Amino acid sequence: MTSSKSTIDILVALDKESISTHEAELATQGIIVYDQFMLKERYYGDRFLDIPLIELAEKHGRERVMANTVAVGAVLGMLGLGTDIFFGIIEDTLNKKGSEIVKLNKDAFLAGYEFAVKRCLQCAFTVKPQNKPRMLIGVNEAIGLGAIASGCKFYSAYPMTPSTGIMLYVAGKAKEYGIVVEQAEDEIAAINMAIGASYAGVRSMTGTSGGGFALMVEGLSLAAMTETPIVIALAQRPAPATGLPTKTEQGDLLFALHGGHGEFPRVIFAPGSPEQAFYLTNKAFDISQRYQIPVFILTDQYLSDSQWTEGDFDINKFVHKDYRIRGDSLEAIKDYRRHAITEDGVSPFGVPGTSTRLIITDSDEHDEEGHITEDPEIRVSMVDKRLFKKMGLIKKEISPPLFYGDEKPDIVLFGWGSTYGVMKEVVDIISRHYKIAMFHFSEVFPLPSTEMLDYIGILRGAKKTICIENNATGQFSRLIKAETGYEFTHHINRFDGKPFFADLLARRIDGINR
Amino acid sequence: MVSIDDFKGKTPAWCPGCGNYSILRAFKETLVELDIAPHEFTIVSGIGQAGKFPHYLRCNTFNGLHGRTLPVATGIRLANHRMPVIAVAGDGDCYGEGGNHLIHAIRRNIGVKLFVHDNQIYGLTKGQASPTSMEGVVTKNQPFGVLSGQLNPIALAVALDCSFVARSFAGDIIHLKQMMKEAINHRGFALLDILQPCVTFNKVNTYEWYRQRVYHLGDNYDPKDRISAFEKSLEWGERIPIGVIYENKRQTFEERIPVIKDRPLIDHEIFTEGWRNSLQKALDEFF
């Protein structure tokens, strides 16, 4: 399972409202667990399982509050998952509170578990046992971990849902890995602090959501002009303005692409899973440092607030290259100029205070040394260096999209970022009926070259091409059209604040093809 | 030994008679007297006539955005607190556009030395009111006179328990040098508000106007007493005190961050074998 579906298998209702709100979403084989004494109501029929949660809690756990543990026991009993794993979790989390509490929780859990095993005769759930332990990880954690493992030493941000989890993860590891995490007074300060730290020679990052990024765009432009590397995690949520703060949307792709005054190079990654987020965060740091440019990691609330099971991540695949010039090697550059015009547009990234060379930079247009200038020739050569020379090289760094499905498809699904899992699942669901394939882009700007994988050619060869986006206007579709001239035959957009569900999306695609 | 020539930069484009010239001279002489070489410190400046300051010098320079000197300076300082970081801003830059950052830099007590070229007017944009313009002053953009109250940066800083608060005057270069030295030598955040005539756009607060009013705080004045400092900070008008108005020994931000207590962040090793091996532990926590 790589995505969500629209139906509920097990609903644990702790009040009547949960039943009235969600009963209609119950799957055919779905079951509602409730306690008639808690809800002061009896429900009849096969889909209801009445478990005396409070009674079992008071009897086995001594307190009413244990009803939660009883309910968890009941759910695991219904799924036939065994008791070992949960017992381990109880021990790990409650050990501090003493062995008595651990025992009571285990007893309450077991009471619920056994009750469900005996009474849920209509339970038809099967969960495949895992023979190998897997990771349980969210995208925010994967980005935080990827940043630390890429040598990030400074993270400044202002809390904003759904990006805050990255800062929380890094702050939790600050002591162990020697990272300064500063909660700035606002997003303007956050990005400017990160730029300052980066100028001074440490890998820096900030994170925010759309509204916070709106405050950061002047700083983004500053990073570009001063050629100071910075990584920005932008976790999208529905806007305009405060929008739907706890819901999801892919509404800021073109904002990330165009935010900031002036013309300058940038790179945008949009992972579709924690695994992609982990490796792309490393690539973001490496490209940002190598070319001294801003790089985005674009996620959204659905990715940020979900947890995935993943196989092992391999830190040995990370690129760990230090592009800084410090101390003696900086001293050795006789005529050091921070913004020297070079063959590839990349100037030597000197670190101030480590030699007698001076590191000078300016938000004004500047000469090679870094001093303010209005000379038109210097201006043109700086734009050429900063933008054109670098952009040509950066394009070569971008990997082709992921292609999955039929080699010569009639139907092509096209998407980016968080729709990775749901698109893949949909291809699996409907490949029995159609010759279908998908392209998923996790590196969205600059667009990958078609030399390695001719995605435009494959699109042109297909009968129906559907660009699937969690936004209202089809921003990626517009980007593809602007950059390649290709127009999709169909679009599927969802912008009600919810992610795509595999079953509903499969039905919509089926509808298009009938 | 460093000499004044070590700091020779580009020729300033300031108006003849601008207070910035004496601030520049005082600063160079201060560096010579403190024996700080151009590569040993960094100036962060913003936008305004004061923002050009580091270009007329020779030193590590980050000339950033209007109002954002303090966040950049804070970031530099947190990355490398062995290196002195001096933020240079004007009254519009620091008290207007970047007011929020001033409040929080003071709260943090980050070891940045902030020199504000306070000419009570916007010079670069040609003569609009600034936060420190006096009430009633008429400008092209404030034809009914300045309606908002005058910002008192000294009182604001004392109220926030800023660890070093001083005022000086561009027309008193010996005093200005003394204040710059004390600010640089102070541990923690230092605010030095420098009264500076703008000969082109401020026809009210002229050299003469300041000379008639400024006076040195005497030896009897105790800058460690916060209540009397607060009283002194409210003095403005017929008499304007210059000198160290308030100081305390609050711990600095850098001292309170355990991660950089022993050595600056810039000295932390990355990409070593030991560092790489340590990462596996964080990964294993997800199993």
Q: Gist?
A:
The complex is a heterodimer of chains A (514) and B (287). Chain A has helices spanning 16-22, 36-39, 53-60, 67-79, 84-94, 99-119, 139-148, 164-177, 187-199, 210-225, 253-258, 274-291, 301-304, 327-331, 376-395, 420-430, 455-461, 475-484, 502-513, and strands at 8-12, 26-34, 48-50, 135-138, 152-157, 180-183, 203-208, 230-236, 267-269, 294-300, 307-310, 324-325, 349-350, 360-362, 402-405, 411-416, 436-441, 443-445, 464-469, 490-493.
Task: Provide an overview of this structure.
The complex is a heterodimer of chains A (514) and B (287). With 514 residues, chain A is of the alpha/beta class. Chain A has 19 helices and 20 strands. In chain A, the strands form 5 sheets. Chain A has a 7-stranded mixed beta sheet, sandwiched between helices. In chain A, strand 12 (324-325), helix 14 (327-331) and strand 13 (349-350) form a beta-alpha-beta unit. In chain A, helix 3 crosses helix 4, helix 5 runs antiparallel to helix 6 and helix 9 (187-199) packs parallel to helix 10. The two termini of chain A are 26 Å apart. With 287 residues, chain B is of the alpha/beta class. Chain B has a single domain, classed as Rossmann fold (3-Layer(aba) Sandwich), CATH 3.40.50.970. Chain B has helices at 19-34, 69-79, 91-97, 99-108, 153-159, 173-185, 207-213, 226-233, 253-256, 273-284, and strands at 42-45, 60-63, 85-90, 112-118, 164-169, 190-195, 214-216, 240-247. An 8-stranded mixed beta sheet of chain B has the order 2-1-3-4-6-5-8-7, with helices on both faces. In chain B, strand 5, helix 6 and strand 6 (190-195) form a beta-alpha-beta unit. In chain B, helix 1 packs across helix 6 (173-185) and helix 5 (153-159) runs antiparallel to helix 8 (226-233). The longest helix of chain B has 16 residues, at 19-34. The N and C termini of chain B lie far apart (59 Å). The mean pLDDT of chain B is 97. Strand 14 (360-362) of chain A pairs parallel with strand 2 of chain B.
